[in-house]
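Sequence of DUF5105 domain-containing protein (Fusobacterium animalis 7_1).
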Amino acid sequence: MKKIFRYILLSFALLMLVACGKPDSQKAFEKGFKETMTDISKKMSEGDNEATKMMAKILEKATYKVNKVEENGDQSELDVTIKAVDLTKYLTEFMASLKPLIDSNMGEEAFSKATVDYFSDLSKKELEYKETNVKVYMEKINGEWKVINTDDIVVGIFGGLEEFIKGPQN
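Predicted 3D structure, token representation.
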């Protein structure tokens, strides 16, 4: 009977240890990441622009992995890897595919059709991903963990799109 009681007690202690798993700042980050992805998708899916709706579906594929968490009082630093579709690659391809239409002074209707066609085809492909390592800085404000450097996370979600927008540096 003592052995059975000891095993039950040991199992209970192990379950309690596992249940305490994630730091509060990590839980807050994970919740915030999911909410951000939902907000981006919702905003991009509004309206009549089919290409934007397709882009939203591509962005929804972003995932993350929390590699390390260091909480120190009201400050926290998370080492996070964000895996997202490599938008730089695909937008560069898209711009190249538009060149003949631009050279022929395409109209708005031709541009819209080419955009929808490209992103429709893209959504059916096996896509390439880009991993971005981000240091996420959080601070506990009024009892709640808040991300301080949200821009760095957005850059990761958009799969290097910032590099595409900036273009080559001279």
